[in-house]
Write a structure and sequence with these properties.
- The structure is a single chain.
- By secondary structure, this protein is of the alpha+beta class.
- The chain has a single domain (3-132), classed as ph1033 like fold, CATH 3.10.590.10.
- The chain is 26% helix and 37% strand.
- The chain contains 5 helices and 6 strands.
- It has helices at 15-21, 32-40, 96-100, 109-112, 123-132; strands at 3-8, 23-26, 46-51, 57-70, 80-95, 118-120.
- The protein has a 6-stranded mixed sheet.
- The protein is globular.
C-alpha cells in the first residue's frame, strides 16, 4: 500500500463535500508530475486530504477506490483521474505551520513542492501526521 496527499481548495471541493458525497472522481489535474502520481495510485492506497488556500490543513483520510482512468473533464487522453472514497475526518486538523515546525515533516512534499496537487507521502510522515491528530 502506498500513501498519498491530495490538495483541494475548499471553495472548489471541500472535505465536507467528500464526506457528504462518500466518494468522488479526483479529476481536473493538469500537472504532469501530479498526473504521473495519479497513475501510480492503487486501489486501497490511503490518501490524506489537504485544504489549500483556506485553512491550509490536513483534515482527513480518503482511500483510492478506483485506479487511474481517463479524466472525464477532458477529451485529451493524456490526463487521468482516480476515484477516492471517504474514510475518516480528523478531530484535530494538522496545519501547514505545525508541519513546518515539526522536525519529522521537514521533507514532506507539501513543504518541498508546495504547488504539487497529488504527491506521495512516506510512511513515517503519514504516521507522524496521524500521531498529531490525537
Amino acid at each position: 500500500m502506498s500513501l498519498w496527499l491530495v490538495k483541494s481548495d475548499p471553495e472548489a471541493y471541500s472535505f465536507d463535500d467528500m464526506e457528504k458525497d462518500g466518494k468522488t472522481s479526483w479529476d481536473g489535474v493538469r500537472n504532469y508530475q501530479a498526473r504521473n502520481n495519479i497513475q501510480l495510485m492503487k486501489k486501497g492506497d490511503r490518501v490524506l486530504f489537504y485544504h489549500s488556500q483556506i485553512g491550509k490543513d490536513i483534515v482527513g483520510v480518503t482511500e483510492v477506490s478506483k485506479e487511474a482512468y481517463n479524466d472525464p473533464t477532458t477529451e485529451d487522453i493524456r490526463w487521468f483521474s482516480v476515484e477516492l472514497k471517504f474514510k475518516k475526518r480528523f478531530k484535530k486538523t494538522i496545519t501547514l505551520e505545525s508541519m513546518k515546525s515539526n522536525e519529522k515533516l521537514q521533507n514532506i512534499g507539501l513543504i518541498k513542492q508546495s504547488r504539487l496537487s497529488v504527491m506521495p507521502i512516506a510512511e513515517f510522515e503519514y504516521d507522524e501526521i496521524l500521531r498529531l491528530t490525537k
